[in-house]
Design a protein that fits this description.
The complex is a heterodimer of chains A (329) and B (261).
Chain A (H helix, E strand, L loop, with lengths): L2 E4 L2 E2 L2 E2 L2 H15 L4 E7 L3 H8 L5 E6 L8 H15 L3 E5 L2 H13 L5 E10 L2 E8 L4 E7 L5 E5 L21 E4 L11 E7 L12 E5 L9 H11 L2 E4 L1 H5 L20 E5 L5 H7 L4 E6 L12 E4 L2 H14 L2
Parallel strand pairs in A: 1-4, 1-6, 4-5, 5-11, 6-10, 7-10, 13-14, 13-15, 15-16, 16-17
Antiparallel strand pairs in A: 2-3, 7-8, 8-9
Helix pairs in contact in A: 3-4, 5-8
Chain B lengths: L1 E5 L2 E3 L21 E3 L1 H17 L2 E8 L3 H11 L3 E6 L8 H12 L6 E5 L10 H9 L3 E10 L4 E6 L4 E7 L3 E5 L11 H7 L4 E5 L16 E7 L8 E2 L4 H14 L5
Parallel strand pairs in B: 1-4, 1-6, 4-5, 5-11, 6-10, 7-10
Antiparallel strand pairs in B: 2-3, 7-8, 8-9
Helix pairs in contact in B: 2-5, 3-4
Classes of the chains: A alpha/beta (329), B alpha/beta (261).
Chain lengths: 329, 261
């Protein structure tokens, strides 16, 4: 078997982006003329392995150990090294989640490798896989190839490979065999102690319900310019949102942050002002119906998702926009 | 507590980027540089820990001669001394090669805590910290938003997806990658800038550290084929002219085409 998708679960529940990785593994296998398998790590994961067995795969690995119940980078790295030794995949794929980015660099480095992290697309050239990933916050793309002996490692950006539909209407397929692996891990190998997951105090702002959101990024430059954005939001009857740097700087509270670690929104109109559009922000707003971008950089990735745009200095464009809105009332 | 903060100098955030004729890196002429933003927060976290618990903050950076400027700024903000690994091959695009250099420089330091930003704004691998932990044999946690010193070790707050967090405890020495917003970034004071001139900067090369140069280094497991600017897939309607003209056109479209206002 050659392409191995490592799925992510917590407390018996899938991280859904794992199924994007699974779809990519099947697709890569088809294009590279090899087979695809999948693995799940944890404890009491029999039902998850059984679910994978119906997913048109050559083989499924259930890696079970009490020390894999709660994620730690040490236990996952040890278990995955043993899995790789057993399964001998040529390419191991992961969803690019926070958890994967915590252990994958360590796993790859322990085998003298570098993982291609956060890949966005691929092509096959003369039977070899070429992966594309973003540099400079999405402003540049690089094509990379694996060199040297297998195994090779890559993680895939959320949304890059839509999960495929394998329903009853799909071609009939035999259930894949499930091989159990009980990795050798001793408590002394695990140096970090994970405690419970928690959320901060109840969010007071629910941007998910807003019809119009005016969102501001680092292009605003300083706190003194914030009233300009507040005025625009007021004229539009919009909620205020922000990209991470604005909340990091304390110019808006954390509960107005849109993006990967903040809220996910899909309003009728999302106006991104001075936001360059790094992927961490785009994942939180790209489902918006109409996206407007105002940015001084014509190459800012935000224009990749914008329906309407103005390239210019927001300190000049926003006052003009406020005036035009007031006049058109 | 002896704290090492690994920092990287990257092209300034609003740089207009173009691809070098080699296709393997960006055109560097005319670029200005600054500290990688998450690394600035890692430095801030290190300085705050030192203020609370005493000890020393050592700034560590690998890169060409221009990196000296970023190191001076770290010293001016309060780092006690610095190590500059002089490396002209900075566009090597491989976090493992970088981590090998950093690890070699740290072996004689024996820090209690190694901090770095969770990712770089240029290459964006988000891997160097966790790789460095592996090479140094240290426990680690990534995407850290808070660090608390315990009697034995530390408790950190990790950021997870969709507003979730997790506390993780570990013994020292350890390595943490720091998320932006962990503290409020300080500015260098005039006194700090003055003092920075007298602080020690140890300059070393890969050869000094016993790390093989490009010819003797282990083969890279990932090779760069080419860099390019992304192709636009969505056709954005852009409005031009003066700000007033552009704004007027936008309002027309929002009202009569998108019908959202």
């Amino acid at each position: 078997m050659s392409i191995l998708a490592v799925m992510e679960q917590r407390a018996g529940v899938w991280n859904r982006t794992s199924f994007e990785t699974l779809a990519a593994a099947r697709r890569f296998a088809g294009e590279l003329d090899t087979t695809a398998g999948a693995a799940v790590l944890g404890q009491s994961i029999g039902h998850l392995a059984a679910e994978l067995a119906s997913q048109h795969l050559e083989k499924v690995y259930a890696v079970e150990h009490a020390l894999l119940q709660d994620y730690t980078p040490d236990a996952y790295t040890i278990a995955l090294r043993q899995l790789v030794e057993l399964a001998k995949p040529s390419i191991v794929l992961f969803p690019h989640t926070y958890q994967v980015s915590d252990f994958l660099p360590k796993l790859a480095a322990s085998l003298g490798k570098v993982a291609v992290s956060d890949a966005i697309s691929h092509r096959v050239d003369h039977g070899k896989l070429v992966l594309a990933r973003q540099l400079f916050q999405g402003k540049v793309v690089v094509d990379a190839r694996f060199a040297g002996d297998a195994p090779h490692f890559a993680s895939l950006q959320a949304g890059a490979y839509p999960p495929d539909k394998l329903g009853p209407e799909g071609p009939p397929h035999h259930a894949a065999p499930v091989e159990k692996l009980a990795p050798r891990i001793s408590p002394g190998d695990v140096r970090t102690r994970p405690l419970d997951l928690f959320r901060e105090s109840q969010q007071s702002v629910d941007l998910g319900a807003a019809e119009i959101i005016v969102s501001v990024g680092r292009g605003i430059q300083e706190a003194g310019n914030m009233p300009l954005i507040e005025k625009l939001a007021q004229v539009l009857g919009a909620e205020l949102g922000a990209s991470r740097p604005v909340c990091d700087a304390g110019w808006l509270p954390k509960d107005r942050q849109v993006g990967g670690s903040g809220q996910t929104v899909a309003p009728k109109m999302y106006m991104a002002i001075g936001i360059s559009g790094a992927i961490q922000h785009l994942v939180g707003m790209k489902a918006s119906r109409t996206v407007v971008a105002i940015n001084k950089d014509p190459n800012a990735p935000i224009f990749e998702v914008a329906d309407y745009g103005i390239v210019g200095n927001l300190l000049e464009v926003v006052p003009a926009l406020i005036e035009a809105l007031q006049q058109s009332k | 507590m002896k704290i090492v903060v690994a920092i990287k100098q990257v092209p300034a955030r609003d740089s207009q980027l173009s691809i070098a004729s080699s296709g393997k890196w960006i055109e560097e002429a005319d670029l200005s540089y600054e500290i990688n933003e998450p690394d600035a927060y890692a430095l801030e976290a290190g300085l705050e820990l030192k203020e609370a618990h005493g000890g020393e903050v050592v700034a560590l950076s690998a890169g060409p001669a221009r990196v000296a400027q970023t190191i001076r700024e770290a010293l001016a903000k309060g780092a006690d001394r610095a190590i500059h690994i002089e490396d002209e091959n900075h566009a090597a695009l491989d976090p493992l090669a970088t981590a090998r250099l950093l690890a070699a420089a740290l072996r004689s330091e024996a820090p209690d805590l190694v901090l770095t930003g969770l990712q770089s704004d240029d290459l964006g691998y988000g891997q160097t910290g966790a790789i460095l932990a592996e090479l140094l044999g240290l426990p680690h946690a990534t995407i850290v938003m808070h660090v608390e010193k315990l009697d034995r070790g530390i408790r950190v707050k990790r950021e997870l997806e969709e507003g979730w967090f997790q506390h993780v405890e570990m013994p020292l020495p350890a390595l943490l990658t720091i998320q932006t917003g962990i503290g409020k970034l300080r500015y260098a004071t005039l006194m700090g800038i003055k003092k920075a001139r007298t602080k020690e900067v140890r300059r070393v090369t890969a050869a000094d550290l016993g790390v093989a140069g490009p010819e003797g280094a282990p083969a890279a497991s990932v090779t760069i084929e080419r860099l390019y600017l992304p192709q636009r897939t969505k056709r954005t309607q852009l409005f031009e002219g003066s700000p007033q003209e552009a704004a007027a056109q936008l309002v027309q479209k929002l009202r009569f085409e998108a019908r959202v206002i």
